[in-house]
Structures are given as C-alpha cells and as structure tokens.
Amino acid sequence: MANQILHLEPYQDAFFRSTYRYPGMLAGWGTGKTMLAIFKIVLLCQLYKNNLALIVRRKFTDLAKSTMKDFTRYTGLKIPQGTKEVTIPGTTSQVLFMHGDELSGLQNVNLGCIYIEQGEEFDSQEQFDLLRGRLRRELEPVTDFEAYDPAYDSYIADLKANPLLQMMVGANAAGHCWTWKKWIKDCIDTMTVEDGPYAGESFKAYELHEATSYDNYQNLPKPFIMDIASMKQDSPAKYKRFVLNDHDEYDREGSYWGAELSALRRLHPPHIGLVPHDPAYAVHTAWDVGYTTCLWYFQVVGVNRYYLGYYENQGEGVQHYTDLLHKWEEERGYRYGHHFGPWDVTNPAHKVTEGQTVMEIACEHGIFFDRLDQDRDVNNSIQHARKGFPLSWFDADGCENGLDALEWFHEKKNERMSLEGRPYFTQKPEKDWSEHCAKAFIIADQGIPMIDDGGDDMSIDEIHKLQHKHGMVA
Predict the structure, then answer these.
(1) Which of 27, 30, 153, 337 is 20 to 30 A from residue 465's alpha carbon, by CA?
(2) Comparing C-alpha atoms, which of 71, 85, 81 is closest to residue 34?
C-alpha cells in the first residue's frame, strides 16, 4: 500500500484532523466522506501498535459491493470475502468489515477506531450506542512513526501524546433522522462526566462537518457537476438533499406521512410554526401508554386542529404524566377537555406491576380517559389520519420531537424480497422509536370527532377570523 500525501479541501482537512471522539460528516454526494474515513483509519492503524478498526454498513450487499470495494480502491488492499478483515501492511493492526445485522454478535472485542458508513441508513442510533461500548482499546503509539506530509507533523505528535479512540460517522442528509439529531439538533461539543471516578472531567465529544457537492467541485469530473446541477430542474427534492445537503427535504422510502408534512411546511404561511394556546378553548390530549408513554396535546377550533405540543418519556409511572398535566394546568392556564386513551388503558396486565389499570391510576389523579377501541386495520387508521393533515397546525417548538417521529414513521420493508429501486413492503408499520408517537397521533385523529367546542355553531367567517388571530393564514 502506497503512502499517500493528501491534498484536501479545508472542510476535508478539518474532518481528517479531528480529535473529537465522535466526528460526523453529514455532506452531499462526492464530498469525500468515505475516502477521508478510510485514510483516517489506515493512519490510526499505522500509528498505534496492534490497533483494531471496524467499518460498518447497514446492509451486507452495500458493504460488499460499495464500501469494501472503495477500501480496496483507495488502499490497494484486497479484502477476503470469507473473513472480511485485512491487516495493514507493516503493522499488526487489522480492519474488520461488518454489516448491521452482525453487530449484535460483536462480543469481547475492544476496538480502537470505527467508521459507520452511510449512517442515515440505520433506523436509529441503537447501533451507534452499541459500538460506543466497544470503543475501549488500549492504544500504544509507534514512537518512530512519522507523517508522510510534514504539514501533519504536529498533528501526529499530538496523536502520540494523546492516543485517540474515535468513531466517525458519514451520512447523507436524510431529514430529521438520528444523525441529524446527534450532530445538528443536539450536537454536544464538550461532555462533562457527572458520575464515576472521573466525575468533573471533560472530553471533546461530537463535532459536525458539513459540505455541499459544490464544495469539492475541483476534485470531481465536470460532467458530474453539470449533471447534478441539472437536477435542480428535473429532481428538485433530491437536488436539495444530495447536492445541497438540505436536511429538511426528505421523503423517506415507505413514509406514511412524510409528503403531507413537507406540504404543510411549504404552505404560506406554513402550518408548522407558532401555534399559541387560546384560553377560550379546551386543551385535549391523546395518549399511547406502555414503557414508553407519550401524548399529544391540542385544541380544536371549528374543523381545524391546533397541536400545541408533544411529550414522551420512558420508564415512568402514570402519575408522572398526570402530575405534568396538572402542572401545565397551573402554569399555562390549560383547561382540559377530553383525554383520549388507547384500548389498553384498561388492560388488566398493567395490574401485575402497578396493582391498577392505567385508567384507574389516572382517575385517582384527576385525569379521566375516553377509552377508544382499537381499529383492527392499522392501515385504515393511518389513511384516515392522513386526511386530517390539511386541517392541522403544529407548533414548531412544542411539537418538534413529535413531528420528527411522524415524518420517520414508515412501512416495514421486506429486505430479502426487495430489489434495488424496487422495495417490497409488508403492509405493516416498522416497529421502531416512531411508532408510539404515531399511535398517539392516530388516537387524536380518532377522538377529534367526539369533541364539541362549539365549532358547529361557527360560521366560516368566524373560523377565518380565528385563523387570522393566530397568524395561521395570510
């Protein structure tokens, strides 16, 4: 393998030199995400004795046909298909290649560096969190290792003095998925340890690197740049996502409501913005209950639905949520109307752990559920909820996490029967982090026809006046 001197764009150099534990490069097509991560892994394998690196991709076919071939193209090293591991020449360090389904079997392995390729392909941060627990290898620098390019001398000296355990993530923009949450919405630059023997100490945690395809145009073929530029006319959504790295433009494959939410954002004024509480109308809630319990709270004015916010928590008892509602009642002036619950608020199984059903506990704390029967045809419920989006307004801040879940909620795909560009769906929702929120939203949709807030007595002009009052129409 030839030792290479890299000539990098400034954003590429910043990612390559990063000493953060979790640098993420969320960037457009052709920006060099894979190349930079491969060269960084090779460097860390050469710099530290007996290092062990891992490169991960969600699907085996993509790992074998794309990621592993890219590794060979950039390094000249062939990867045996049987073992999917390679030793870096001149070292005792190895690089492993795994797909997402193999990670659960990654036991008793201490890694020194990791690269998650196309992180947006994973449904959640579950695999990322699993790998965090494996990033714990004892690193010993090769004292006589020297940089191939003198410009990196001080950087190499720093890595020798401060051995680097690192997990890199590369991803395309994919809406408000887990990579967006980790590196854009909630990017934590420095984390301070709050517990254990090192309480009070800090480390550099998450670092975001972004780029559009045009930021690397000098290293890409002119016909490619011209072609992706033409996508602005014939494929504008993909142009925004894959070329301009726009995280707000994404219609997930199999998404139930992604198109409807995108349409609400494009309206003028948008239906996702500021939605103030109107004390003249009751606030209603719609729940999904379980280990993860969540609720939407909203008002109904005439035919329109104004979602004030969304709340979700895990592992809390029913009283946690009833106390929260009473707190909002006092602090925000909410006057509650209906509390819509799913069929299992009366499920006797809850008595095994709590001694009472959810409905009984809530009743003791002043919250009285309207129990809604389960629609046996989940697709019918999803379709019916879809029809309510044009009548809905969402507060952008209060509903942020809920909107992310609604946008992510999607049909489960049969991976074995799907072909490239021809997905085969199971006609059932994917059971992931978004399902609880979606169920509560469906409960709201089913309960709204039961609400009587005087809307039948309101004229169209009166409804329009209320919309103007709240800034919901131009």
Answers:
(1) 337
(2) 71
pLDDT by residue (tens digit) across 415-428? 777 666 677 788 89
C-alpha count within 13 angstroms, C-beta hemisphere, residue 344: 11
Walk me through the domains of the chain, giving residue ranges and CATH numbers.
Answer: 10-215 (3.40.50.300), 258-469 (3.30.420.280)
Spans of the chain, pLDDT less than 70: 1-6, 250-251, 351-354, 418-421, 453-474
- Report the distance separating Cα 306 and Cα 278, nearest Å: 10
* Cα 342 from Cα 183, distance rounded (Å): 35
Which pLDDT does position 104 carry in this prediction? Answer: 81
- Provide the whole-model pTM: 0.76
Q: What pLDDT sits at residue 20?
A: 98
DSSP string, 86-129: EEPTTSS-EEEEEEGGGGGG--S--BSEEEETTGGGSSSSHHHH
Give the Å distances, CA to CA, from 305 to 180, 184, 282, 429.
28, 30, 12, 25
Q: How far is CA 468 from CA 390, 397, 452, 454, in A?
A: 17, 20, 22, 18
Distance CA 55, CA 113 (A): 9
347-377 pLDDT tens trace: 887 765 668 999 999 999 999 999 999 888 8
User: Which amino acid is it at 414?
Assistant: N
Helices then strands, counting H and E runs in the chain, come out as 17, 18
Segment holding 191, helix H or strand E: strand 190-192
- Supply the DSSP symbol for 149: S
Contacts of 452 (CB under 8 A, 6+ apart): none
Q: Taking a C-beta distance cutoff of 8 angstroms, is the pair 340, 447 a contact?
A: yes
Cα separations in angstroms, 29 against 66, 244, 250:
14, 9, 15
Q: What is the DSSP string of 391-414?
A: GEEEETTTTHHHHHHHHH-BEEE-
CA distance 162 to 157: 9
Task: Give the pLDDT score at 40.
Answer: 97
| Crossing angle of helices 33-47 and 10-17, rounded to 10° | 40
CA 371/CA 176 separation, integer angstroms: 32
Sorted by sequence, the CB contacts under 8 Å of residue 378 that are 6+ apart come out as 428, 429
- AA identity, residue 67: T
- Contact indicator for 165, 19 with CB cutoff of 8 Å: no
Q: Which candidate, 93, 113, 110, 437, places its Cα nearest to that of 296?
A: 437
